[in-house]
Amino acid sequence: MSDRIDAGDTLSPLQRLYHKAITSPHTINRVERNQIHGRPIPSEEDALCLAATSYNFHDLVQKAIKEPSALSDTEARILSDGANQPSRADIDKTIAGFKAMSREERDLMDEAWEASADPEETKAKTNAWDVIVKKRAEKRAISRQQREAARGAPGQTSDIVQQKKAWVKMLEQKGWTEWGFVCFRTYYGEDAAWTRAKERVKAITTAALAPVSATAAVKQTWKIVYVEDEMLQGIAAEGLRERFKSLVEAGSVTEGIRTDYFISADATVVRSFQAGRNSAIIPVWEAGFNPRESHSFGYPGAVAVPCSLLLATVYPMMLMGEPTPLQTLHFMAGG
Q: Does pTM surpass 0.90?
């Protein structure tokens, strides 16, 4: 992919570094790796780690590899999200800059990202994320036990003790063989990154479903149906909607999998999951959205939500008949 951009004098210093990482990854030092991956310079990264923990970055990586279960919440967060904590404005600026890139620039950056990745750092990040997911599940389980204990206390009615959320009851009544969303893969870079992204989606959504009071049948039938076709690389919104419509019309979407909304994963989404971000987001699309209709009021026909909310908020809103779920979420977010 690296030859898609002319490696002549017109390249920026960062683009030259990308080419170096791709052609000679063994020559990349930590300063250069941090620059490619958008991390602080090593001295600042070590200082941030030491200020929050008793380890510099290298020692923290080694701890995560050798004793992942001993990681504190702060240590796991640093390895998962980075030593620095960018503001929401910084994150939005980074995403906007990424979207403004040409296809060739994105491919070059992604290839350099993969080529320059340090295996030990990648392993440490993966272990840290697994620790975070496990601890979150444990905290949710404890919270659930506390809520159930409170409901069973003297003075509580049996109706409250037995109460389940309405959307869960509806799912149990439906008895679908699967329920969830279709997800289109629109980025075809390194397959390992895509595999890891799917694993992370499964881990996050499974953790979100764990504390829900529902039958095993309901929990076991949650599903993301992935559609992978390299013709989808970089496809525009209307193209995605047409592809989804054709799947539905062909009867390829089973009952319980949403036929009016779907999700997708482009390079930004895949990199967000690959980076181990706790708040990794994924776009949810309204299949029948028409941008020419005047009632949209700035609503773009899709909303990016934290992956954990696919189960906790988005699907329940749709299942319970919220007339405009994505528009509601869009306006609640200040869109």
A: no
